[in-house]
Amino acid sequence: MEMNRKRYAVTRMKLMATTIMGGLLFAGTLHAELPKSGAIIMFGQSRENPYFGQNAVAVQDIAKKQGWTFSYVEASSQEQQDSAIQQMLSTGDKPIGVVLNPVSGAAAIASEMALKDAGIPVVILNQVPAPGQADLFVAYGGVNDYLSGQNAAQLLIAGAKKARVELGNGLIVNTVAGHTAAQQRVAGFEDEMKKAFPSSSQVLANVNSGGYLENEGYNIGSQIIPANKGKFNWVYGVNDALAYGALRAAKESGIQPGKDVLFVGGTCMNSTTNAAVKKGELVGTSVQAPYIEGAAAMYALVAYLNTGKVIDGEQNLSPDTPMSIDTPPHKWNYMPNTMLDGSEKSYTDTVIWGKTAQELCNYN
Questions:
Q1: Are both 2-143+289-336 and 146-286 of the same fold?
Q2: CA–CA distance from 239 to each of 36, 144, 355 (Å)?
Q3: Residue 212's closest CA among 103, 334, 63?
Q4: Cβ neighbours for 186, distance < 8 A, ≥ 6 positions apart
Q5: CATH fit for domain 146-286, picks 3.30.450.20, 3.40.50.2300, 1.20.1050.10, 1.10.530.10
Q6: By the number of CB atoms within 10 A of the CB, which of 42, 46, 78, 330 ranks highest?
Q7: Which of 352, 328, 324 is nearest to 340 (CA)?
Q8: Is 94 exposed, middle or buried (0-12, 13-18, 19+ CB in 10 A)?
Q9: Which of 150, 109, 149 is closest to 129 using CA atoms?
Q10: What pLDDT does 169 receive?
Q11: β-bridge mates for residue 21, sequence order
């Protein structure tokens, strides 16, 4: 513990020496031009989850465009990820940058500190770090999970108006315990619901499923839906796969999705979940595209390596074009989170960085 305190104190002293001028944070070595060669390492979660697989595809695509090599290191726990990072650091072969998708955002501080101490630029995606971690990484590029939760609540409220349903109590099908992104989504969802229904809509159960996919949603839905039948009329799955899994379980209990109970996820995923949105079984969704998220993180890293600078604060990235690599990235770079109303037109006409929602909302 004493060793950790000393390391943290030294790190803080280094960071306090960082010069702040004109809103630009000068961190690390300034580069006159991009490195012509080098390695990018991405530490992430299992690519059996198609979302994380698409994150990695985008990072690899952009690394290759720069002439850099790419490798991906999977982990199923934060301890396993920490060990992999320590093993990489022990070799002495430093990559020019690391893209980090922590297993547990709050528990990743030790690895972030170790990478910072080694002088390796780190960009984080998928889980927005806590403000107290800001000194430990170059930039965040990815989803605004609080906004994602707010949008899910807005979709649910709009769906209820369309169906002429008065929203009462509901259930939340969550992901892995301690997953920062899920916690922020639920916070955004609950805050938005409280604004609209300060006293008439309560969360009866908020249960971790242990995963992110349809089967985990189905397993939890099979438990909490029959146990609360007749007491709720909405279900929020923190992504569309979990929501759809719970929807399947509801059907087996004799519940008609879209009529008896409204279901919402708010992160489009694949042809199955898209079909449920178009049929009205899921009341709507948003384009939280994993390829765009991986690209947002990687463009932030490339821009930092190109300029050696970071702009303090946050920015909402335009759906029209990616950020320029010739200007410094912001500290917090939030990808577009466009809502879809479920019509075929919304899928074909919504375009983010040259890709339609139909393309972006179809990964397996």
A1: yes
A2: 39, 14, 21
A3: 103
A4: 149, 172, 174, 206, 236, 238
A5: 3.40.50.2300
A6: 42
A7: 352
A8: middle
A9: 109
A10: 97
A11: 24
The predicted structure's pLDDT at residue 18:
35
Whole-angstrom distance, CA of residue 265 vs CA of residue 285:
6
311: three-class secondary structure by DSSP: strand
pLDDT digits (tens, 9 = 90+) for 107-163: 899 999 999 999 999 999 998 998 889 999 999 999 999 999 999 999 999 999 999
DSSP conformation class of 125: -
pLDDT of residue 14: 37
Which pair of structure tokens corresponds to residue 162? 């369309």
The encoded tokens of residue 8 equal: 């943290």
Residue type, 42: M
CA dihedral defined by 225, 230, 236, 240, rounded to 10 degrees?
60
Please indicate, yes or no, whether the overall pTM of this predicted structure exceeds 0.85: no
Concatenated DSSP letters for 19-42?
EEETTEEE-S---SS--SS-EEEE
Enter the tokens of residue 164. Answer: 């002429």
Q: What ranges in the chain are assigned the alpha helix state H?
A: 2-16, 50-65, 78-91, 109-117, 145-163, 180-196, 214-227, 240-252, 271-279, 290-307, 344-349, 357-360
Distances (CA, A) of 355 to 230, 319, 348, 362: 42, 10, 10, 11
CATH fold group of domain 2-143+289-336: Rossmann fold (3.40.50)
Please check whether residue 243 is in contact with residue 235, taking contact to mean a CB–CB distance below 8 angstroms. yes
Mean pLDDT by runs of 10 across the 364 residues of the chain is 36 35 40 84 94 96 97 96 97 95 90 96 93 94 96 97 95 92 95 94 96 95 96 97 98 94 95 95 95 98 97 96 96 96 93 96 86
Domain residue ranges of the chain, discontinuous segments joined by +: 2-143+289-336, 146-286
